[in-house]
Amino acid sequence: MKILCVSDQIDPLVYSTNAKERFQNIDLVLCAGDLPSDYIDFIVSTLNKPTYFIFGNHNLSEFGFYHKQKKQNGPHPTWDIQGSVLDMSGSFGAIYAGFKVLKNKRLPVSGKKGKKRPLLIAGASGSIRYNNGLNQYTDRQMFLKLLALVPSLLFNKLRYGTYLDIFLTHASPRHIHDREDPCHKGFACFNWFIKKFQPSYLVHGHIHLYDMNSPRTTQVGKTAVVNAYSYTILTLDEEQTKSAKEDKHE
Questions:
Q1: Distance between CA 183 and CA 170 in Å, rounded?
Q2: pLDDT digits (tens, 9 = 90+) for 91-105
Q3: Beta strands in the chain (DSSP E)
Q4: Which value, in Å, is the radius of gyration of the alpha carbons in the chain?
Q5: Positive or negative, the Cα torsion across 130, 133, 136, 137?
Q6: What's the average model confidence in pLDDT over 117-122?
Q7: Could you tell me if 160 and 120 are in contact, meaning their C-beta atoms sit under 8 angstroms apart?
């Protein structure tokens, strides 16, 4: 399975009249945040492939279509994914994966005893809190949001033999691709998440690759942590899904 991953920057090779031919073998698109909606809409309409997105810490004009603001009891506003979504004009043809566990039956992978199962995707929007802006969270707040995903992940394990194939985020895990300035620190709870649930990939954005010698992919146990900045293409093969299924957790 070929996966096109994009984030943070409009890449002229993607935003091109030749994109359909250039990416004709793509099966899935992952948008890891900080991308304008018309860019995502272009990708969806041009490639006509299943596309998932999360929000970053910029380009948040459509954020309110997917989250409602809770009553503010302190200086920091909070947002609730369970809020009513009344206006889906902000969907731009893609599926929102923020703080959800999703199944794609159109993209089956091998599961128990070679039986086909859906591709399993989860997502987490936002960055570490650095200026009290929209879609920013403390590590504890993000950890609580991840805990809310656990029942669905446990169901996946019982039903399909594995928790998850892909974890789509904007920020990176702490000390993996992140930086030490307040804006670009990663979430320590993401490290816990990939250690516990071991997806084949964690795909993130947020960290710009100005130096081409900077690592784009780092292997952490069974999980490849991939920086999607601009664009990159991944391959999810049968061996990866099988190894995730067979892995034993301590």
A1: 12
A2: 568 999 999 999 999
A3: 2-7, 28-31, 51-53, 68-69, 79-80, 95-96, 100-110, 116-124, 127-128, 136-137, 166-169, 201-204, 217-220, 223-227, 230-235
A4: 17
A5: positive
A6: 97
A7: yes
